[in-house]
Specification:
Layout: H1 3-17, E1 20-28, E2 33-41, H2 54-71, E3 78-83, H3 94-99, E4 104-113, E5 116-126, E6 130-135, E7 138-143, E8 147-152, H4 156-164
Length: 166
C-alpha cells in the first residue's frame, strides 16, 4: 500500500465527518515535503454541489493537523495543504468520470492501450472497471485501474456549468 493510500485511509473518516470527501492525496518532496489533500463537499451531504470556500479548507486543515500530529504517518517535516479540486479538476474516481460525462478530459495510462498511453476527448461514461472516451480517432474503452492521471480540460461548456453552480 502506498503512503498516499495509507494516509487516505487514515483521514477519510475525519473528512467525511465534516461533510466532505477525499478527491486525492499526494505526497511530494523528499526534504521538507508536502502533503496535498484535495477535498470537495460530499455529494450526498447538505453542501453537495456547492463550491469550497477558504473557511472549509481551514476547518479541514485544523482537524487533519491534529490527527496527523498524533498518527505521524510521514517521516520528517512536511507542509499540509488542503485544497479544492478546482474547475479543471483531476478525475480520480469512477464517479468523477460519470459526473463529468459529456465534458472533455485528458487521460494518461500507466501502460499503452491500443498502442498509446495518452487520450484526449469527451467522456462518454464509466463504471468501476472502465472509462469510455470519444477521441478524434474514435471511441476507446480504457481500464480504470490502468489510469495514471486524468483531468478535465477547461472548456466553455465546463466554465458555463461551473458558473451556474454558484
Amino acid at each position: 500500500m502506498t503512503i498516499e493510500a495509507r494516509i487516505k485511509d487514515l483521514i477519510t473518516p475525519t473528512i467525511e465527518a465534516l461533510g466532505f470527501e477525499v478527491v486525492r492525496v499526494r505526497v511530494s518532496g523528499t526534504k521538507n515535503g508536502r502533503l496535498q489533500v484535495m477535498v470537495e463537499p460530499n455529494t450526498d451531504g447538505p453542501r453537495a454541489g456547492q463550491p469550497m470556500i477558504v473557511d472549509d479548507c481551514a476547518e479541514i486543515s485544523r482537524a487533519l493537523s491534529a490527527l496527523l500530529d498524533v498518527e505521524d504517518p510521514i517521516d520528517g517535516p512536511y507542509e499540509l495543504e488542503v485544497s479544492s479540486p478546482g474547475i479543471d479538476r483531476p478525475l480520480t474516481r469512477p464517479k468523477d468520470f460519470v459526473r463529468f460525462a459529456g465534458h472533455e478530459a485528458r487521460v494518461e495510462l500507466n501502460a499503452p492501450h491500443d498502442g498509446r498511453k495518452r487520450f484526449q476527448g469527451t467522456i462518454l461514461d464509466a463504471d468501476e472497471a472502465n472509462v469510455r472516451i470519444q477521441c478524434d480517432e474514435g471511441e476507446f474503452e480504457l481500464p480504470f485501474n490502468g489510469i495514471h492521471r486524468a483531468k478535465l480540460l477547461m472548456t466553455d461548456k465546463l466554465l458555463a456549468e461551473a458558473e451556474n453552480m454558484q
